[in-house]
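This part of the workshop introduces the protein records we will be handling. A learned vocabulary of local backbone shapes supplies the integers on the structure line. Getting from the letters to the tokens is the skill we practise here. As an example, a complete record with its sequence and its structure tokens follows.
=====
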Amino acid sequence: MSAYRPTIGLEIHAELKTRTKMFCDCRNDPDEKEVNTHVCPICLAHPGTLPTANKEAVRHVLRVGTAVGGTLANYTEFDRKSYFYPDIPKGYQISQYERPLISGGELSGVQITRIHLEEDTARSTHAEDSSLVDFNRAGVPLMELVTEPVIHDAKTAANFARDLQLLLRTLGASDANLEKGEMRVEANISVSKGEELGTKVEVKNLNSFRSVERAIAHEVERQITILEKGEAIVQATRGWDEDKQQTFHQRSKEGSADYRYFPEPDLPKLKLSELSEFSSETLRASLPELPWERIARYEREFNLKPSDSLFIVSDLDRIVFMDRVFALTENERERELSVNYFVSDLAGTPGKVMPEAYIALMHLAATNVLSSRGVKEVLGIMTVNGGEPEEIAKEKNLMQISNKEDLRAAMEKVLKEHAVVVAQYKEGKETSLQFLIGQGMKATKGAGNPAVIKELVEELCR
């Protein structure tokens, strides 16, 4: 075990789902393909233009803060964060510094420092001999969440990001697709011996949960190697190279003083306590069932295993599908089967299977009309083509035969053909029974009910 202790803090940005941008009336459309379409003098920073804060974006952040148990600001303001880059047309970004909307809170056991609101930058595209800037994203509402440096391994960091994504989607605050850049994760990483923190390095360009985990693990090992050589860690910003699976130097790390923060003079200060719609009671009443509440309810009401509850709740489409299934189930056996097949065979992706058809299939399984093999075959067909399970089962001759008399002739033939095995079974060899049941299933092309076949073998061998 290494003598070094990693310490990780996360900074996560998420583009918020609003009709318009943060400080103007331009459309907020992350799927727009035509560049520089949703732009105006305000988000292009023409001289003399004035911003107006997007009320819905403020509400989104306050609801997120309420969900994680943070303290809502009574008084808040926006600040100018000054730095020059081609994707910042103003030469500064409107953000929040000393007075964020949310202070404190906790998610998945990780303490949160703050959650604040700012505007997104434009999108830059670099080629060998030129750089292009698309301003469609400039000014889009951007939530930034900063955790305390209390994470000590890569897996916990990635899981926190996953849980935040699910919360944002549950609240309707953001689609938070990492591959589209709607959610961006940055990790501040240091290693040290003992409790004192080491020199912090920020790693950017983490566009998947797998990248979050791998980048942190790599950076921890890189820093340990440097320290073991007796060298010092340089505070810097590094990127993540997915192809090489390693971090790389980008620039020296700025401090807050480098950004020359000062209050935004063109936006009014906000006293949220004067707005009844932003009161703690109103915001709390607006929240849907939160992921951890749903997990607890599934386990309490449906007796689901924690791992199955977590699997369902980790995706909104799974929740919608299974909540409909749970509403249709008639008994505990059907519910148990529906969860088992959903987790193992559907793997959470129903395809063209409708909840009503799915529970009809579970009813056929629960009543032994279909064998386990038959259920799997029908489910495979339904996933691709949809359809009604009973019709598919009949068409494919998969209906299970549970009537003893319908199976008797086939089993009499099986026993006659395997007289030696029958004799061994009669002498007490239990494995012979399983062989004969298997032969019965083979003779009925998998349609025989194995429990009924077992009864017939025992009866006919007396």
